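Shape matters. As here.
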Amino acid sequence: MKASILVAGGAGYIGAHTCLRLAEAGYTPVVYDNLSNGWESFVQWGPLEVGDVRDAARLDAVFAKHKPVAVIHFAAFIEVGFSIAEPGAFYENNVGGTLTLIQAAQRAGVDKLVFSSTCATYGAPVYVPMDEKHPQAPLNPYGRSKLMVEQVLEDLDRYKGFRSVALRYFNAAGADPEGRIGEKHEPETHAIPLAIAAARGERDKFTLFGGDYDTRDGTCIRDYIHVLDLADAHVLALKWLLDGKESAVFNLGTGTGTSVRELVGAIERRSNRPFPLELAERRAGDAPALVADNRKAREQLGWSPRHDLDAIIEHAWAWHANGALDLKR
Protein backbone atom coordinates (compact mmCIF):
# COMPACT_ATOMS: atom_id res chain seq x y z
CA MET A 1 0.00 0.00 0.00
CA LYS A 2 1.15 3.54 -0.73
CA ALA A 3 1.99 5.63 2.32
CA SER A 4 -0.42 8.53 2.84
CA ILE A 5 0.90 12.05 3.41
CA LEU A 6 -1.43 14.71 4.80
CA VAL A 7 -0.87 17.86 2.74
CA ALA A 8 -2.42 20.82 4.54
CA GLY A 9 -3.09 23.53 1.98
CA GLY A 10 -2.59 21.05 -0.84
CA ALA A 11 -5.12 22.76 -3.12
CA GLY A 12 -2.97 25.87 -3.31
CA TYR A 13 -0.22 26.78 -5.73
CA ILE A 14 2.89 25.18 -4.20
CA GLY A 15 0.89 22.52 -2.36
CA ALA A 16 -0.73 21.20 -5.55
CA HIS A 17 2.59 20.95 -7.38
CA THR A 18 4.00 19.09 -4.39
CA CYS A 19 1.08 16.66 -4.52
CA LEU A 20 1.97 16.01 -8.16
CA ARG A 21 5.55 15.18 -7.20
CA LEU A 22 4.44 13.09 -4.20
CA ALA A 23 2.25 10.94 -6.45
CA GLU A 24 5.10 10.52 -8.92
CA ALA A 25 7.31 9.39 -6.00
CA GLY A 26 4.79 6.71 -4.95
CA TYR A 27 2.93 8.41 -2.11
CA THR A 28 -0.78 9.17 -1.74
CA PRO A 29 -1.22 12.89 -1.02
CA VAL A 30 -4.30 13.52 1.11
CA VAL A 31 -5.20 17.17 0.61
CA TYR A 32 -6.63 18.99 3.62
CA ASP A 33 -7.78 22.45 2.57
CA ASN A 34 -10.59 24.87 3.36
CA LEU A 35 -10.49 26.09 -0.28
CA SER A 36 -10.38 29.74 0.80
CA ASN A 37 -7.26 30.24 -1.32
CA GLY A 38 -6.97 26.84 -3.01
CA TRP A 39 -8.71 25.36 -6.03
CA GLU A 40 -10.66 22.12 -5.98
CA SER A 41 -9.61 21.48 -9.60
CA PHE A 42 -5.98 21.39 -8.45
CA VAL A 43 -6.64 18.26 -6.37
CA GLN A 44 -5.81 15.59 -8.95
CA TRP A 45 -3.47 13.10 -7.30
CA GLY A 46 -5.28 11.99 -4.14
CA PRO A 47 -8.39 12.56 -2.03
CA LEU A 48 -9.62 15.97 -0.87
CA GLU A 49 -10.74 16.52 2.71
CA VAL A 50 -12.29 19.96 3.13
CA GLY A 51 -11.45 21.48 6.49
CA ASP A 52 -9.67 24.27 8.33
CA VAL A 53 -6.35 23.81 10.15
CA ARG A 54 -7.93 25.49 13.18
CA ASP A 55 -10.63 22.79 13.39
CA ALA A 56 -9.24 20.18 15.80
CA ALA A 57 -12.20 17.79 15.59
CA ARG A 58 -12.13 17.75 11.78
CA LEU A 59 -8.38 17.15 11.80
CA ASP A 60 -8.76 14.25 14.24
CA ALA A 61 -11.31 12.62 11.92
CA VAL A 62 -9.06 13.02 8.87
CA PHE A 63 -6.00 11.61 10.66
CA ALA A 64 -8.05 8.63 11.85
CA LYS A 65 -9.47 7.98 8.37
CA HIS A 66 -6.28 8.22 6.30
CA LYS A 67 -3.55 7.36 8.83
CA PRO A 68 -0.82 9.52 7.24
CA VAL A 69 2.80 8.82 8.11
CA ALA A 70 3.77 12.49 7.93
CA VAL A 71 2.42 15.99 7.30
CA ILE A 72 3.46 18.62 4.78
CA HIS A 73 2.10 22.00 5.85
CA PHE A 74 1.33 24.80 3.39
CA ALA A 75 -1.91 26.13 4.88
CA ALA A 76 -1.20 29.79 5.64
CA PHE A 77 -2.02 33.34 4.65
CA ILE A 78 0.81 34.68 2.48
CA GLU A 79 -0.08 38.22 1.36
CA VAL A 80 2.32 40.69 3.00
CA GLY A 81 -0.01 43.68 2.65
CA PHE A 82 -2.84 41.79 4.34
CA SER A 83 -0.48 40.81 7.16
CA ILE A 84 0.22 44.48 7.81
CA ALA A 85 -3.46 45.44 7.60
CA GLU A 86 -4.70 42.50 9.72
CA PRO A 87 -1.83 41.06 11.80
CA GLY A 88 -4.18 39.38 14.27
CA ALA A 89 -5.80 37.32 11.53
CA PHE A 90 -2.37 36.30 10.30
CA TYR A 91 -1.20 35.09 13.70
CA GLU A 92 -4.47 33.29 14.38
CA ASN A 93 -4.28 31.36 11.12
CA ASN A 94 -0.55 30.93 10.57
CA VAL A 95 0.53 30.32 14.16
CA GLY A 96 -2.66 29.16 15.87
CA GLY A 97 -3.66 26.95 12.95
CA THR A 98 -0.23 25.35 12.83
CA LEU A 99 -0.37 24.55 16.56
CA THR A 100 -3.79 22.95 16.12
CA LEU A 101 -2.51 20.90 13.19
CA ILE A 102 0.58 19.74 15.07
CA GLN A 103 -1.41 18.77 18.15
CA ALA A 104 -3.78 16.72 15.99
CA ALA A 105 -0.79 15.00 14.42
CA GLN A 106 0.62 14.21 17.86
CA ARG A 107 -2.70 12.76 19.02
CA ALA A 108 -2.60 10.51 15.95
CA GLY A 109 0.95 9.41 16.68
CA VAL A 110 2.46 11.34 13.76
CA ASP A 111 5.75 13.05 14.61
CA LYS A 112 7.11 14.26 11.26
CA LEU A 113 6.28 17.54 9.51
CA VAL A 114 7.66 19.42 6.52
CA PHE A 115 6.95 23.12 7.01
CA SER A 116 6.50 25.74 4.31
CA SER A 117 8.60 28.61 5.64
CA THR A 118 10.01 31.64 3.86
CA CYS A 119 13.02 33.86 3.31
CA ALA A 120 10.83 36.62 4.77
CA THR A 121 11.96 35.37 8.19
CA TYR A 122 15.35 36.97 7.44
CA GLY A 123 14.11 40.51 6.88
CA ALA A 124 16.49 43.04 5.35
CA PRO A 125 19.68 41.32 4.19
CA VAL A 126 22.79 41.79 6.28
CA TYR A 127 24.69 39.99 3.54
CA VAL A 128 23.78 38.44 0.17
CA PRO A 129 23.42 35.62 -0.70
CA MET A 130 21.70 34.67 2.55
CA ASP A 131 22.46 31.33 4.19
CA GLU A 132 20.53 29.57 6.94
CA LYS A 133 22.63 31.29 9.63
CA HIS A 134 21.63 34.76 8.46
CA PRO A 135 20.01 36.77 11.30
CA GLN A 136 16.22 36.48 11.37
CA ALA A 137 14.53 39.86 11.79
CA PRO A 138 11.28 39.84 9.76
CA LEU A 139 9.98 43.12 8.36
CA ASN A 140 6.28 42.24 8.52
CA PRO A 141 3.76 40.04 10.38
CA TYR A 142 3.82 37.47 7.57
CA GLY A 143 7.51 36.80 8.11
CA ARG A 144 7.13 36.94 11.89
CA SER A 145 4.30 34.40 11.81
CA LYS A 146 6.54 31.95 9.93
CA LEU A 147 9.45 32.60 12.28
CA MET A 148 7.21 31.94 15.28
CA VAL A 149 6.28 28.54 13.84
CA GLU A 150 9.95 27.73 13.24
CA GLN A 151 10.61 28.51 16.91
CA VAL A 152 7.70 26.32 17.99
CA LEU A 153 9.09 23.47 15.88
CA GLU A 154 12.52 23.85 17.50
CA ASP A 155 10.95 23.47 20.95
CA LEU A 156 8.83 20.50 19.89
CA ASP A 157 11.91 18.79 18.53
CA ARG A 158 13.93 19.53 21.67
CA TYR A 159 11.32 18.57 24.24
CA LYS A 160 8.87 16.21 22.49
CA GLY A 161 10.84 14.46 19.75
CA PHE A 162 8.59 15.95 17.06
CA ARG A 163 10.86 16.20 14.02
CA SER A 164 10.48 18.69 11.22
CA VAL A 165 12.15 20.22 8.19
CA ALA A 166 11.52 23.93 7.62
CA LEU A 167 12.00 24.98 4.01
CA ARG A 168 12.69 28.69 3.62
CA TYR A 169 11.81 29.43 0.05
CA PHE A 170 12.49 32.49 -1.92
CA ASN A 171 10.12 33.52 -4.77
CA ALA A 172 8.07 30.63 -6.12
CA ALA A 173 7.18 30.98 -9.79
CA GLY A 174 6.32 29.03 -12.93
CA ALA A 175 3.83 26.22 -13.53
CA ASP A 176 3.48 22.57 -14.45
CA PRO A 177 4.84 22.34 -18.02
CA GLU A 178 1.93 20.07 -18.96
CA GLY A 179 -0.53 22.82 -18.02
CA ARG A 180 -2.49 20.83 -15.42
CA ILE A 181 -1.94 23.34 -12.61
CA GLY A 182 -0.26 26.71 -12.22
CA GLU A 183 -0.23 29.97 -10.33
CA LYS A 184 -3.42 31.84 -9.56
CA HIS A 185 -4.22 33.85 -6.46
CA GLU A 186 -7.21 36.03 -5.58
CA PRO A 187 -6.24 38.79 -5.42
CA GLU A 188 -3.11 38.26 -7.49
CA THR A 189 -0.10 39.98 -5.92
CA HIS A 190 2.85 38.07 -7.41
CA ALA A 191 5.07 39.80 -9.94
CA ILE A 192 5.28 37.23 -12.74
CA PRO A 193 1.55 36.56 -13.22
CA LEU A 194 0.83 40.31 -12.95
CA ALA A 195 3.48 41.15 -15.53
CA ILE A 196 2.31 38.39 -17.87
CA ALA A 197 -1.25 39.68 -17.60
CA ALA A 198 -0.02 43.16 -18.55
CA ALA A 199 1.99 41.75 -21.44
CA ARG A 200 -1.07 39.88 -22.69
CA GLY A 201 -3.25 43.00 -22.47
CA GLU A 202 -5.33 41.58 -19.60
CA ARG A 203 -4.20 44.40 -17.31
CA ASP A 204 -3.65 48.02 -18.30
CA LYS A 205 -0.18 48.21 -16.73
CA PHE A 206 2.39 46.62 -14.45
CA THR A 207 3.39 48.50 -11.31
CA LEU A 208 6.97 48.69 -10.06
CA PHE A 209 6.92 49.43 -6.34
CA GLY A 210 9.98 51.53 -5.67
CA GLY A 211 12.68 52.61 -8.09
CA ASP A 212 15.20 53.98 -5.62
CA TYR A 213 16.45 50.88 -3.79
CA ASP A 214 20.20 50.42 -3.38
CA THR A 215 20.30 47.81 -6.14
CA ARG A 216 21.82 47.74 -9.63
CA ASP A 217 18.77 49.36 -11.26
CA GLY A 218 16.87 50.75 -8.28
CA THR A 219 14.22 48.01 -8.18
CA CYS A 220 13.91 45.09 -5.77
CA ILE A 221 15.96 41.97 -6.45
CA ARG A 222 14.43 38.55 -5.89
CA ASP A 223 15.48 34.93 -6.35
CA TYR A 224 12.82 33.25 -8.55
CA ILE A 225 12.61 29.48 -8.07
CA HIS A 226 10.47 27.17 -10.20
CA VAL A 227 7.53 25.72 -8.29
CA LEU A 228 8.39 22.17 -9.38
CA ASP A 229 11.93 22.59 -8.05
CA LEU A 230 10.31 23.56 -4.74
CA ALA A 231 8.04 20.53 -4.94
CA ASP A 232 11.04 18.26 -5.49
CA ALA A 233 12.61 19.65 -2.33
CA HIS A 234 9.49 18.85 -0.30
CA VAL A 235 9.64 15.22 -1.40
CA LEU A 236 13.33 15.07 -0.47
CA ALA A 237 12.57 16.67 2.92
CA LEU A 238 9.84 14.10 3.52
CA LYS A 239 12.25 11.27 2.73
CA TRP A 240 14.81 12.92 5.03
CA LEU A 241 12.38 12.62 7.95
CA LEU A 242 11.13 9.15 7.02
CA ASP A 243 14.76 8.01 6.96
CA GLY A 244 15.06 9.03 10.61
CA LYS A 245 17.25 12.08 10.12
CA GLU A 246 17.22 15.01 12.52
CA SER A 247 15.20 18.21 12.24
CA ALA A 248 16.69 20.70 9.81
CA VAL A 249 16.24 24.00 8.00
CA PHE A 250 17.05 24.55 4.32
CA ASN A 251 17.00 27.54 1.97
CA LEU A 252 15.38 26.92 -1.39
CA GLY A 253 16.44 29.31 -4.11
CA THR A 254 18.58 29.40 -7.24
CA GLY A 255 21.28 31.67 -5.85
CA THR A 256 20.68 34.10 -8.70
CA GLY A 257 18.97 37.45 -8.14
CA THR A 258 16.74 39.09 -10.73
CA SER A 259 15.60 42.70 -10.42
CA VAL A 260 12.01 43.65 -11.17
CA ARG A 261 13.15 45.60 -14.23
CA GLU A 262 15.13 42.58 -15.44
CA LEU A 263 12.07 40.42 -14.92
CA VAL A 264 9.99 42.82 -16.98
CA GLY A 265 12.61 42.67 -19.72
CA ALA A 266 12.52 38.87 -19.78
CA ILE A 267 8.71 38.86 -20.06
CA GLU A 268 8.84 41.48 -22.81
CA ARG A 269 11.22 39.24 -24.75
CA ARG A 270 8.78 36.34 -24.39
CA SER A 271 5.80 38.44 -25.47
CA ASN A 272 7.76 40.21 -28.25
CA ARG A 273 6.45 43.58 -27.18
CA PRO A 274 6.78 46.09 -24.34
CA PHE A 275 3.89 46.75 -21.99
CA PRO A 276 2.94 49.80 -19.89
CA LEU A 277 4.79 50.30 -16.61
CA GLU A 278 3.93 52.50 -13.65
CA LEU A 279 6.45 53.49 -10.98
CA ALA A 280 4.89 53.69 -7.51
CA GLU A 281 6.14 54.26 -3.98
CA ARG A 282 7.84 51.45 -2.11
CA ARG A 283 5.56 48.99 -0.34
CA ALA A 284 5.88 48.63 3.41
CA GLY A 285 7.74 45.47 4.40
CA ASP A 286 9.64 44.94 1.12
CA ALA A 287 13.35 44.13 1.46
CA PRO A 288 15.64 45.52 -1.25
CA ALA A 289 17.28 42.18 -2.15
CA LEU A 290 16.60 38.55 -1.24
CA VAL A 291 18.91 35.94 -2.79
CA ALA A 292 19.51 32.43 -1.46
CA ASP A 293 22.68 30.66 -0.55
CA ASN A 294 21.43 27.13 -1.30
CA ARG A 295 24.63 25.17 -0.58
CA LYS A 296 23.19 23.41 2.46
CA ALA A 297 20.24 22.02 0.49
CA ARG A 298 22.57 20.94 -2.31
CA GLU A 299 25.06 19.22 -0.02
CA GLN A 300 22.78 17.68 2.62
CA LEU A 301 19.38 17.27 0.98
CA GLY A 302 20.75 16.39 -2.44
CA TRP A 303 18.59 19.05 -4.06
CA SER A 304 19.39 21.47 -6.83
CA PRO A 305 17.13 23.65 -9.00
CA ARG A 306 16.74 22.46 -12.58
CA HIS A 307 14.84 25.36 -14.17
CA ASP A 308 16.18 28.80 -15.07
CA LEU A 309 14.27 32.08 -15.34
CA ASP A 310 13.46 31.58 -19.03
CA ALA A 311 11.86 28.19 -18.26
CA ILE A 312 9.91 29.72 -15.39
CA ILE A 313 8.50 32.43 -17.63
CA GLU A 314 7.80 30.02 -20.50
CA HIS A 315 5.82 27.65 -18.27
CA ALA A 316 3.97 30.51 -16.56
CA TRP A 317 3.16 32.08 -19.94
CA ALA A 318 1.76 28.80 -21.27
CA TRP A 319 -0.36 28.34 -18.15
CA HIS A 320 -1.85 31.83 -18.39
CA ALA A 321 -2.39 31.49 -22.13
CA ASN A 322 -4.39 28.29 -21.64
CA GLY A 323 -7.15 29.30 -19.33
CA ALA A 324 -5.62 30.18 -15.96
CA LEU A 325 -7.86 33.21 -15.72
CA ASP A 326 -10.96 31.06 -16.27
CA LEU A 327 -10.54 29.15 -12.98
CA LYS A 328 -13.67 29.33 -10.83
CA ARG A 329 -14.20 28.31 -7.24
Q: What stands out?
A: The domain at 191-222+255-326 is CATH 3.90.25.10 (UDP-galactose 4-epimerase; domain 1). The two ends are 32 Å apart (CA to CA). The longest strand covers residues 112-118.
